[in-house]
Design brief:
43% of the residues lie in helices and 9% in strands. The longest helix is centred in the N-terminal third of the chain and has 54 residues. α6 runs antiparallel to α20, α6 packs antiparallel against α23 and α20 packs antiparallel against α22. The strands form six sheets. A six-stranded mixed sheet has the order 1-6-7-4-3-2, with helices on both faces. A three-stranded antiparallel sheet has the order 8-11-12. Strands 5-13 form a two-stranded antiparallel sheet. The protein is built from 24 helices and 17 strands. It has 635 residues and is α+β, with helices and mostly antiparallel strands. It binds adenosine-5'-triphosphate (ATP). The site of adenosine-5'-triphosphate (ATP) has 25 residues, from β2, β3, β4 and α5. The site of adenosine-5'-triphosphate has 25 residues, from β2, β3, β4 and α5.
């Protein structure tokens, strides 16, 4: 009997062990299955979320070429976007200096997340600048998308922007100024000779960056466009902005362009960028362009060129340039909408009912009429920016001009239809209206409240005001730099190469003079110099072109180069885009390989003499323009 006990115990312990192992295995496999299920759920969830968040960009192949940084990387590169690394603030974001893990110095632009413009700038910058490679264009190194945050990484330009130098006490010597002018012209030459051509759309000093040797590179392609079908007026440009708000893929549209080769040492590759583009050009613009006499071909193949000014109801336009100018300046009506144009074209009596051209952009820009300093600025700005920036002002000053398109409404008109198609139509519309409202409020710094002491002071002292004005980017470029056919009321929505040429003309004058294009000073006596372009035209008329040269240079500059630059600027600033030189010719002229073409003289009336007094030269020895381009009488 006693010999049976151990056998029973052994059996029992074996059974216990088996049960224990079974329990362990069951628990372990249950945990494993549970983890597996959790992982599967997480994986499905993650890939769904990740796909919706990245597909708009990842589906655009140009983005694949660029490095995608994580927010964490850029955050540590800029030391948490610290003030010490702050470089500058622009219209759409803030720029910081950063050092990547490999030691490379970069500039990181953190775009304002609540701005519609920022999304547009981001998409444009990556699609267009991402496909460009030139020593005259700043390099885009990569980007970051993190939830609503958008960041762009550029090569670092140690001497920052031309604006930082030009309008500071440091100034720039003549040699550097001239080299910068040449560099920018070569940048534009490169852009315009790309296939398809790139129109920069926002040439101004803060978008010209300077490297360690002060060689210039063009930056900020937020407003730029690809010119896709030059033969057809309606579909000149392609830019896909739709879907970015609603979150659909910008890259879903079909391919339009062809791969590019470039004869330059520079390279460009738009085949990828173009895949992300789609045509979205408003039809109204055609009539407006027609009205302005811009040459383009309509759907029926008829060339609607300069001569069509006659068809728009302008008086007696004939082949002479003089008459074209007269009509362009004197008779065109900007208070129109599309129907109105059609009517005016067919109805000769309409001429009599037109409002005066004298109330439009050019008149303001050139400063004719009986205006005080305050009125001058007020009127001029009123012609340039949205009247609704200030409700008081709109009621007070501009109520009769209701038919005008408002610049700030532009985006709304362009995109609201697309937005309306989405499921969250009402929500987006409400959000959009709120943003428009906020933007209007932000821009109210340019408005002039009646009885507002501060604003009146700002206007009369001028400098802060001038600075803000000439760096205000709208949907169509920057005030004072934007060409009349593009930026003013009734301007076309088409950017053309000559629009860049116009802005380049303003830039030349700004570089030569070291002044902002609109520089309002305290003394009314100086009003004649407030508008750089009109002042330059007056000087040209009087043969005092070199009076425009920055006083800080004293006599330490090349007079023939300076004279060439100012004359070239005047050629670029011609109102008729067709009469402005091509940028290729501009480069040749600057290099001395081509003569400056004879251009018709566009004379600007002086500001009211009783306000500004007589023009007084600040230089004792007036220097006549070396080539005498502007000494001839008006053609
Ligand atoms: N790559 C860069 N390297 C060095 N500094 C830069 C670089 N990019 C921009 N900056 C500086 O940051 C400033 C702000 O640039 P940003 O492009 O945001 O705006 P902006 O051109 O001044 O104005 P806007 O956005 O209205 O055109 C510039 O004026 C320039 O001084």
């Amino acid at each position: 009997m006693p010999s049976r006990q151990p056998a029973f115990t052994h059996q029992q312990s074996t059974k216990h062990r088996a049960t224990f192992i079974f329990v362990i295995i069951t628990v372990f496999s249950s945990v494993l299955i549970l983890f597996g299920v959790i992982y599967l759920i997480y994986y499905v969830w993650y890939s769904l979320i990740h796909r919706t968040r990245t597909s708009p960009l990842d589906s655009c192949p140009v983005f694949l070429k660029l490095r995608r940084y994580t927010y964490k990387e850029l955050n540590s590169a800029t030391n948490g976007f610290s003030d010490d690394n702050f470089i500058g603030k622009g219209g759409s974001g803030t720029v910081y200096r950063g050092i990547l893990r490999n030691g490379k110095l970069v500039a990181v632009k953190l775009l304002d997340s609540d701005s519609l413009d920022a999304e547009r700038d981001f998409q444009n910058e990556l699609r267009i600048l991402g496909g460009l490679e030139s020593k005259f264009v700043v390099s885009l190194l990569g980007y970051c998308v993190d939830k609503r945050k958008r960041l762009v990484v550029y090569e670092y330009m140690p001497n920052r922007s031309l604006q930082d130098w030009l309008f500071s006490d440091r100034g720039l010597n003549w040699k550097r100024r001239f080299e910068i002018i040449v560099d920018v012209s070569r940048a534009l030459e490169f852009l315009h000779s790309c296939d398809p051509p790139v129109i920069h759309g926002d040439v101004k000093p803060s978008n010209v960056l300077l490297d360690a040797e002060f060689r210039a590179k063009l930056s900020d392609f937020g407003l730029s466009r690809l010119k896709i079908e030059p033969e057809f007026g309606v579909d000149l440009f392609s830019q896909d902005l739709s879907g970015t708000l609603a979150g659909d893929g910008a890259g879903e549209s079909s391919a339009i362009g062809t791969p590019v080769g470039s004869s330059h040492a520079n390279e460009v590759d738009f085949s990828l960028a173009l895949q992300a583009s789609s045509s979205s050009t408003p039809v109204n613009s055609k009539a407006v362009c027609n009205h302005l006499g811009l040459g383009f071909v309509n759907e029926k193949g008829k060339n609607l060129s300069v001569g069509n000014i006659e068809n728009c109801g302008a008086d007696g336009a004939d082949d002479s340039i003089n008459n074209k100018f007269t009509n362009y300046d004197g008779d065109l009506d900007h208070n129109f909408d599309n129907n109105h144009i059609t009517e005016s074209n067919s109805n000769p009596d309409h001429k009599t009912s037109k409002k005066q051209w004298g109330k439009d952009w050019w008149w303001k820009q050139e400063g004719s009429g009986e205006l005080s300093t305050r009125d001058y600025v007020r009127e001029w700005v009123g012609s340039q920016i949205c009247p609704s920036a200030n409700p008081d002002w709109e009621d007070d000053q501009i109520s009769e001009k209701k038919p005008h398109r408002k610049m700030q409404e532009w985006w709304k008109e362009e995109n609201l239809d697309d937005l309306a198609k989405t499921k969250v139509e009402k929500k987006i519309k409400r959000r959009f209206k709120l943003k428009i409202y906020k933007r209007k409020r932000n821009r109210s710094e340019f408005s002039f409240q009646k009885n507002s002491k501060n604003n009146a002071e700002t206007m009369n002292t001028g400098d802060v005001f001038s600075r803000e004005l000439s760096s205000t980017t709208s949907m169509r470029g920057t005030l004072c730099y934007v060409a009349p056919e593009y930026g003013g009321y009734g301007g076309c929505e088409y950017l053309i190469e000559k629009t860049d040429v116009y802005s380049f003309g303003v830039l030349i004058l700004v570089i030569v003079s070291g002044r902002r294009p609109l520089h309002v000073l305290a003394s009314p006596m100086k009003l004649e110099k407030a508008n750089l372009i009109s002042w330059c035209r007056q000087l040209a008329h009087g043969g005092d072109l070199l009076e425009l040269v920055d006083e800080r240079l004293k006599d330490d500059y090349d007079k023939s180069q300076a004279s060439l630059c100012v004359n070239l600027a005047l050629a670029c600033l011609q109102k008729m885009p067709e009469l402005r030189p091509d940028v290729g010719d501009v480069v040749k002229i600057l290099k001395g390989e081509m003569e400056l073409p004879v251009v018709p003289f566009e004379f600007s009336q002086s500001p009211p003499s009783k306000l500004v007094g007589r023009s007084r030269s600040r230089r004792k020895n007036k220097t006549l323009p070396i080539d005498g381009h502007y000494t001839r009488s008006r053609v």
